[in-house]
Design brief:
This protein is of the alpha/beta class. It is built from 10 helices and 20 strands. The strands form 5 sheets. A 7-stranded mixed beta sheet has the order 8-7-16-17-18-15-19, with helices on both faces. It has a 5-stranded parallel beta sheet with strand order 10-2-1-14-20, covered by helices on one side. A 3-stranded antiparallel beta sheet has the order 5-9-6. The structure holds flavin-adenine dinucleotide (FAD).
Length: 359
């Protein structure tokens, strides 16, 4: 049994804590903020879970499977439906008529045939520019899901499970430096451990382990807004392929997510300055969701967020000689986004027993 210190209580940190505990290790989680969840948080305001940009769960992916495993009652999910997604300048992603177009779509979706424009759009938007075939197929097959409880519901479920097995999560505990088998906290305390798992995002991990290689990320700007009126009609979303922008109405996708009105989540991903991207995204919303601004109940904007590495992910054991393992969507695994984070956490947890214990 190893004493494991997990730095960060986002999806990566909670999932690695769980996987390590299942393998019999003694685990402690430290989180610098006063609340857990990291980027997978959403804040409930008047019954609307306001998140940090659109998040869709891959049905039966590593995160969905983990959450189902730990939940007595499975989370309520409903899929994004291609026949209710408008591709700007083309019509619906899945045309229903004329019959010829409907048949062509079905054939192309089944074969994931890139010559069909809907497959191209799906490939781009299902993974925010990462062109991940598994998520693209999932979108075309009605398997990219919205959670009734919001993305942070997943965090709640993982946190309850950790609590049940007695794994402490200490919040307001920032790790500022690590050396072999020891972490230094901002309040001056030191914590000793056999293995330190960095689940704190790439930027913070690089500060703690400066020799980590550089990674380039897909970046984005997002707007999340609870409205007291609907603004996309019956559409689940509107996608602009040329500009890499999209607006979704999560309330249309899963009516149980909010009491009334609309819950818009919009994203503009790709290169450029954060403020320009955000400005363009708001202009897009003004045109495509007319009047949205005069119906806002609550709103959150993000100018510049890193979504996921565009290439070159780092192996979980990169700093293993220093007693450090890595996890996150930027760490190598066979999956991407949150599923990548959960998959990397499993790989790191499996490796803990191979790490030397503190003498
Ligand atoms: C716009 C956008 C859209 C996305 N869409 C999807 C999607 O559709 N589907 C999907 O599966 N995924 C999606 N993702 C990815 C998903 O949000 C992330 O992969 C996942 O939330 C990352 O979790 P994490 O725990 O690795 O990192 P984070 O959520 O960043 O958590 C890191 C935690 O570590 C803490 N921390 C940092 N430094 C320290 C320190 N020094 N000491 C202690 N604690 C520290 C932070 O406070 C934070 O709580 C999206 C991401 C973005 C930005």
């Amino acid at each position: 049994m190893a004493r494991v210190l997990v730095v960060g209580a986002g999806l990566s940190g909670l999932s690695v804590a769980m996987e390590a505990s299942v393998r019999g290790h003694h685990v402690v989680v430290l989180e610098k903020r006063i609340s857990i969840g990291g980027r997978a948080s959403s804040e409930s305001r008047d019954g609307f879970p306001i998140g940090y940009g659109p998040h869709f769960l891959l049905k039966k992916g590593p995160l969905h499977s983990l959450v189902n495993k730990v939940s007595k009652v499975k989370p309520s999910t409903l899929p994004l439906r291609p026949h209710r997604l408008e591709i700007l300048g083309r019509g619906m992603m899945q045309p229903r008529r004329p019959m010829k177009d409907a048949v062509q779509y079905r054939r192309a979706a089944k074969a994931h045939d890139f010559t069909h424009p809907s497959v191209q759009v799906s490939n781009r938007f299902a993974s925010w520019g990462l062109n991940d075939a598994a998520r693209s197929r999932a979108l075309l097959d009605n398997n990219l899901m919205v959670l009734k409880e919001g993305w942070s519901g997943l965090i709640g479920r993982l946190a309850v499970t950790l609590d049940e097995v007695g794994i402490p999560i200490e919040t307001d505990a920032k790790v500022v430096e690590i050396e072999k088998h020891r972490a230094h906290l901002a309040d001056g305390r030191q914590v000793e451990a056999d293995v330190i798992v960095l689940a704190c995002g790439y930027g913070q991990a690089k500060k703690l382990v400066p020799e980590l290689p550089n990674v380039s990320f897909v970046t984005a700007s997002t707007v999340d807004a609870a409205l007291d009126a609907t603004s996309l009609g019956e559409r689940h979303g509107i996608l602009d392929m040329e500009e890499s922008m999209a607006i979704f109405d999560l309330k249309q996708i899963h009516p149980g997510i909010a009491p009334a009105g609309a819950l818009l989540s919009a994203i503009h991903f790709g290169e450029g300055k954060g403020e320009d991207r955000l400005f363009q995204l708001q202009k897009f919303m003004d045109v495509r969701a007319p009047g949205w601004k005069s119906h806002i109940l609550h709103e959150r904007q993000q100018k510049n967020v890193k979504i996921a590495p565009s290439s070159d992910r780092i192996p979980f054991g990169f700093a293993r000689k220093n007693g450090v393992l890595l996890t996150g969507a930027w760490v190598e695994s066979n999956h991407i986004l949150s599923d990548g984070a959960v998959a990397a956490s499993r790989l790191a947890a499996e490796h803990i027993s191979k790490m030397p214990l503190q003498q």
